[in-house]
Write a structure and sequence with these properties.
This protein is an all-alpha fold. It folds into 2 domains: 133 residues, MFS general substrate transporter like domains (Growth Hormone, Chain: A); 189 residues, MFS general substrate transporter like domains (Growth Hormone, Chain: A), CATH 1.20.1250. The protein is built from 16 helices and no strands. The chain is globular and about 55 Å long. The two termini are 33 Å apart. 47% of the residues are buried.
Amino acid sequence: MGIRATDALLPVIAEDFIVSVPAAGIIVTAFTLPYGLLQLVFGPLGDRFGKLRVVSIALGLYALATLACAAAGSLPQLVVLRAFAGGFAGGLMPLSVAYIGDAVPYTERQAAIGRYLTGVVMAQLFSGPVGGVFGDTLGWRGLFILLGGLSLAGAVAIARRAGPAPETAGAGFGMQKFILLFRRPASRLLMLGGFFDGVLLFGAFSFVGGYLRDSFGLPYTQVGLVVAAFGAGTLLYTRVAGWLVRNLGERRMLATGGALQAILLVALVRIPDWRFLFLVQAVMGLAFFMFHGVLQARSTEAMPEARATAVSGFSMMMFTGQALGALALATAVTHLGWQASYAAWGAGVAVLTLVLATRLRFR
């Protein structure tokens, strides 16, 4: 929730510090950039000292940095504190997924990861409204106090359940694990799949709101509702992931999800009535996690002896792809327009799906 809750508060923060909203937007980049980069550090730390131990420490440090944000006296101070919070947050989700990989048999893992993602999806759905409520009532500082306090309580709860350090503690810490990961052909293909997952899909999702505003002139409230329909499809996935794996298998699940996304990306910018885009977005959310969920589950098996390193490496590739994909699509839309750009991205998704469905190793 701490990643997205400030989105709705940017105008309030900008007004408080007497800057423009685009200038205040630097706090978003300040959080997300270290979030992605420091996963390369937290992965080996989790393998060495125990995943839940590192999660509890990272969550505690995130909580302290978030609480400190409430006391920021200037925009530069807030940017620095958000950067610290984002860096510590980088140790949470990948290590949690890696812990699920340790604790849950592979046949049940996608369903378990789906249940875990329920919390992530609910946070995405409610972060905007919660941020808006605080903007109208207690202000942005109150939101940071709430998030910091809840995170600190969570850190204490996880620390009490962390258990002893793993038997492999102290063995093989450092970049050599990432080098080993990329030397394995199957793992290398998976990491590249994660990268292009970020380039093609996360990049395209980032501009749906801009397309709605530019093409239909919708007010921001309606734009937000259409975009939020993606979360409804994602939430459905978390409830049916186990059934999908059992009945389709990983290969057909990935192929179906990828094919649907390729079609929907092209259709998204060609449907003349924006009201139909609620359904398009909902199906897109389901299809995305049918595709991405398989890759996420496979990342937990890319290097079982260093699972946290493998999952963190996958997340790092995905976040890097997301950053480059958003930049590339912005350039394409500027020069080619919406329809040609999304057609190209849809074709890219189709090619990526074909390559992964035919060459990736599945169980």
